[in-house]
Amino acid sequence: MTLPAFRLERPARLADAVRILVAHGPEAMIIAGGTDVVPNLQMKLFSPRVVVDLKPLRELAGIEFTPASGLRIGAMTTLTAIMQSSLVRSKFPVLASAVGTIAGPLQRNMGTLGGNLCLETRCRWYNQSQFWRNALGGCLKLEGDVCHVAPAGKFCWAAWSGDAAPALLALDAEIEITGPAGARRMPLGDFYTNDGMSRIALARGEMVTAIHVPPRMAGRRGVYHKLRIRNSIDYPLAGVAVTMDADAQGVCREARVAVSAVNPAPLLVKEAGELLTGRRPSAELMEEIAHAAISTGKPLTTSASTPVYRREMLKLFTRRALEELWQNGRA
Ligand SMILES: Cc1cc2nc3c(=O)[nH]c(=O)nc-3n(C[C@H](O)[C@H](O)[C@H](O)COP(=O)(O)OP(=O)(O)OC[C@H]3O[C@@H](n4cnc5c(N)ncnc54)[C@H](O)[C@@H]3O)c2cc1C
């Protein structure tokens, strides 16, 4: 489990980082906190010639909020800083709720939001040592030509296994990407390709520099529920984030539901927003939304728990989150 040989670049300016990434293309790999990259390098899941360390770029860290422009969190902001931010906790509770479930304190102290949003997809047939993978003959994602999850197909189902992305989808966030042509923003949902092999839409030389949440989401109630093997330090096996704005009578004005760890991308449950708007809480409505969640979230045998159990948990979490938000709203 040693690291492969590579050259480490530590650019002092964003423009230098972009230049290095452009020059080396697919042979370069970004490292932020390293909490996902380093174990993956040790398992020889990739072997970049150049590793670009973003830590010297201090301008990429920080949390800012103004009522006019909303929330901006720099890509190099640590998960601990987000979790401990009184601003995030009070105005964007779904994000604090999700980030607080990520790994353990050590990973949250080192791990960054940018790294979390760009995680490698995970699969039980892929996240293994080289020795283990060789015994199997590899898989479609690496060193092989068969997907062990769906052997008849030529598609990689490795699961998106991050916790911050569903919360940010539920906050209607945009991602800021910087590359040789400058900075651009896109809806976070468009950043994910839903393909386990090429999970995110970054072109050569580009990196994530920040995430933006619109001002209308400030103060929006929200919660994240997560299934994991141990109740600490584990990647999600299923996750549901819900945000809701309801009036004093409990009528939903706007809601968003997003699921994670059950598809190759974190996904918004599109029907949920339409079904919930203008409605009051009822057992039938919550059941309808729970079914919408499992028509979007499609767990397969990528993870340590069965697809059937993970589907049931998606339903349970969705119902539970809606109940919580409606109750809190009327308290
Ligand atoms: C034991 C353990 C448990 C974990 N549990 C969880 C968990 O419960 N939930 C969870 O979500 N994660 C979990 N993780 C993964 C990880 O700790 C977090 O996701 C963390 O936020 C990753 O951030 P990082 O800065 O360390 O990313 P890195 O490891 O540095 O990078 C991760 C990926 O993102 C890319 N990248 C990093 N920054 C950028 C950028 N600015 N622009 C473009 N690409 C970039 C890297 O090239 C790499 O592909 C766990 C990790 C470990 C080791």
Give the topology, please.
Layout: E1 7-9, H1 14-24, E2 28-31, H2 37-42, E3 50-53, E4 63-66, E5 70-74, H3 79-84, H4 86-91, H5 93-99, H6 105-110, H7 113-117, H8 130-136, H9 164-170, E6 174-179, E7 182-187, H10 188-191, E8 207-213, E9 221-227, E10 238-246, E11 252-260, E12 267-268, H11 270-276, H12 283-296, H13 307-330
Parallel strand pairs: 1-3, 2-3
Antiparallel strand pairs: 4-5, 5-8, 6-7, 6-8, 9-10, 10-11, 11-12
Helix pairs in contact: 5-9, 11-12, 12-13
This protein binds flavin-adenine dinucleotide.
Flavin-adenine dinucleotide binds at residues 29-37, 39, 54, 75, 79, 102-103, 107, 110-112, 114-116, 118-120, 162-163, 207-208, 233-236.
